[in-house]
Amino acid sequence: MGKGFDQYAAEYDAWFLDNHNVLLSEVRLVASTLKGSKKVLSVGCGSGLFEKIMREEYNLNVVHGIEPSVSMASIAQKRGMEVSISTAEDFDFKKDEYDTVLFNGSPSYISDLKKVVCKVYESLPEGGKIIMIDVPKESCYGVLYNLAKAVGTWNHPLLEGTYPPNPYPIELVKVANWRTTAEKIAILKDAGFNNFEYMQTLTSHPIYSNQEAEFPVEGYDKGDYVAVVAYKLHYE
Prior knowledge:
The protein is α/β, with parallel strands linked by helices and about 240 residues long. Helix content is about 35%, strand content about 15%. The chain has an 8-stranded mixed beta sheet, sandwiched between helices. Strand 2 (about 65), helix 4 (about 70-80) and strand 3 (about 80-85) form a beta-alpha-beta unit. The longest helix is centred in the N-terminal third of the chain and has 17 residues, at about 1-20. The chain is globular and about 50 Å long.
């Protein structure tokens, strides 16, 4: 999926900066899942925008990432990150190198998510955790994105009056594959993960989601951005 982001890296950043309250809501969600984490790998770190904000405003130092888009990785490196240019499928996850592996907004752009999750499980130490954060397919944003993807544009009568003034770039919508929360949980369980936790944000309709920044709440039943956290724990 790197090529799509290579071409639209600047638009990706611009969208988040134009939708500041959406960005803040999402950053708060990501930050809430990283409590207790020591060494974090950000898979699909993009431009490093979230990591920069978390470092400056939340004292969370996430500096290691992987990113297939050269343009995105270049921006992230300028923001102080150490980035490996690679897809998640091809990346060599070193055993016990990280206690937390974060997927923030990237699961929908990973083709073989099952393969990647299994590799992460094998690499994590006992007690390590995986954090999978994304727009659920069943959410309001997910349904809107899939409809826009199906018709190939935001400018369609079926979508009139249903999406925010500044929607996510259609070029990036077209290359995504959103999964339901249930699908992601099943993939994590099949890999061996357990002890699940869930957090969510963007709980109002997408038209209104940028009106005010939200604090994350537990669960996954009403948010358009959902975090699924799971641990590698063996019980006697």
